[in-house]
Amino acid sequence: MQTDRDRARLLDGLEGALSAAGQSFDRSEMEQLLSRLGKRVFLMNNVHDEEAVLFETRWCLSYLRGPLMRNEIQSLTATAPVSAPKVSVKAATPAYNAAPTFAVTETSVKSAPELPLNVLQAYLPYRGTSEGIAYRASLTALTEVHFNDPKNGISDSLKEMRYTLIKNGMIPVDWNDSEVIELSAEDLENSGADGADYLPVDPECLKKTNYTAWEKELTDFLFRNSALSLFRNDHLKKTSRPGESERDFRIRLDQESREERDEAIDKLRTAYAKKVATLEEKIRKAEQAVQREKDQAKDAGFQTAISLGSTILGALLGSKKISATSLSKAATTVKGVSRSVRQQGDVGRSKETVETYKAQLDQLEADLQSDIDGITEKLESKTGDIITTDLRPLKRDCLVKAMALTWEPVRKNQSGGYERAW
Questions:
Q1: Half-sphere CA count of 189, side-chain side, radius 13 A
Q2: How far is CA 200 from CA 43, 69, 372, 403, in A?
Q3: β-strands 228-233, 418-420: how paired?
Q4: What is the Cα–Cα distance from 87 to 109, expressed in whole angstroms?
Q5: CA-to-CA distance for 340 and 342, rounded, in angstroms?
Q6: Which residues pair with 121 in a beta bridge?
Q7: 163-173 residue pLDDT tens
Q8: Which pLDDT belongs to residue 1?
Q9: 3-class secondary structure, 350
Q10: Which of 220, 236, 263, 387 is in the most buried spot, having the most CB atoms within 10 Å?
Q11: What is the rounded CA–CA span in Å between residue 8 and residue 14?
Q12: How many C-beta atoms surround the C-beta of residue 286 within 10 A?
């Protein structure tokens, strides 16, 4: 009762209802009692009891639609007994600001509280029989986190059902204490066991805005704590696939490394083949040139020998006087000797050219083998260097698909506490 007017309306309603039922009512005593009520202390006038009762509880849930008018109270009490003893209160008249004596009731109830509109409600399935089953409030949420890494061709989603107990305290819901349960949305039930008790719930569960806040907190929790563990080889710049074990990743890495090695070696041989073909063609032409020079040198030698022999015989068998013809033949013979010497030099130079080309070919083959060894070492010797890495999601990829206040079945244990019954 916040104002005097509220207390007056309540007193009027009580007086009218009790008068209509033929019961006496001490207005001044009730007014003094109401004015001294402390916080969370309530007065209950049960038509089935003989006396009114003061009580206190941590949670008081009201299912009334609002204040009742006097005629409405009269219609509700029409079936009350015609006569009843005078209403008295089970409490001594307290001094000013003193706490009254009351019966504490923090017991379970037989029905679930009414939740705000559009708040989902579900039940975890209990195991065994329904005997001794009680329900306590918790939250379950169906989440989906998407992991994306286009560079390594990774796109995977993780769907989970998260569960957390709603505690009594300053922070009723803390997703850091949540756990993943092996249930799907289809495993949740729409109703609980018949006759089961419901443990008191935190008043925060009855505020719709809290569910929006809890959903946002869960999204933040998923963003901070979700990660997709993968294996990676930095030397080869390869990453495992989602769900691939380290052993399978090593096997795949070895196989792909061998395939890449063979492909790289084939490309390398193709590139070197052009250079080898060019050098081999040069060697062939150079060897032909050597043979040609040899033939020319041989012919020049024969011609020079014949010319020299003819000149000598002519000089010996001819007249004693050396004629101009003899001198001309001698000069021609000398030129032939010089040409023959030059031909021999050309043969030597052609042979040097062939040897040079062959040396270049040998060096090219050595370079090819060196490059092949480098590729093999790079792709095969580094396959064992594997590390573990975590792929983090973007916040927009952390989704809460659905969230519900979920009644968790529990049973009382020997120590008086409650343990799970699911």
A1: 12
A2: 20, 30, 76, 20
A3: unpaired
A4: 27
A5: 5
A6: 405
A7: 999 988 888 99
A8: 60
A9: helix
A10: 236
A11: 10
A12: 19
